[in-house]
Fold this protein.
Amino acid sequence: MKAEKNRLRVMSYNVQVGIRTDKPHHYLLHSWKHVLPHSFRLTNLDRIADLIREYDIVGMQELDAGSIRSNYINLAEFLAERAGFPFWYHQVNRNLGHFAQHASGFLSRYQPDKITDIRLPGFIPGRRAIMARYGEGDSALTIFIMHLALSKRARLNQLDFISDFVNDSAHAILMGDLNCKADSDEMNLLFRKTKLHRPLSECHTFPSWRPHQPIDHILVTSELKVLDIKALSDTYSDHLPIVMDIELPEGLELKTVQQFEHSFKHIQRHG
């Protein structure tokens, strides 16, 4: 089944473990919420679920895969169920046992053929990328979801490393909290080494209450036509979500299934 009129709607969102932050001093006053459960977290996540249900593919950063602070709820699974996504996948980046399960997530209305975890270089181990592939050969679509390091040197190494994977696909989308601007040395390296294009417009996503930093990105290769890109104004996190509408080329088809109970884990074991 093709995406409606060959149109694909994608989102990248750093959700800050479901913590709503809309003032600078909230970082101090709400810091305990990063380690302990609180009743408003799931209410805020329900609002995020209502927001993301309008999209076909969502890449998420700063989730929790099930620890005390999330009431042992896998937040990728929670959001997928609430928003009606038949496929979800989580990637644990730092496992702190019962205290925290730092994770990224991937939600999709279409069935990927393969999911791959890519371990990224870095001074502090744990940073990874999710690579999801739809289809085979020249017509395949590959999605990359990343949350890059705070160190510029680490980001340079991470984008240099991921470039070889991006170049394996003519149709690629790279999204995430990249912690740098489009004109940074790190991003210039990525654009030189791949066919990913510079963003058509600069979307300020951080901090959500007064966004002036364009550090969240959705990038595509030239075979994918960007119809629209923008940051939404919903302040359910300290980042704003960034969204893009894409026109897929003829011949690129995305498959759907009827059974909601299938998960990416099943695909990964048998794909």
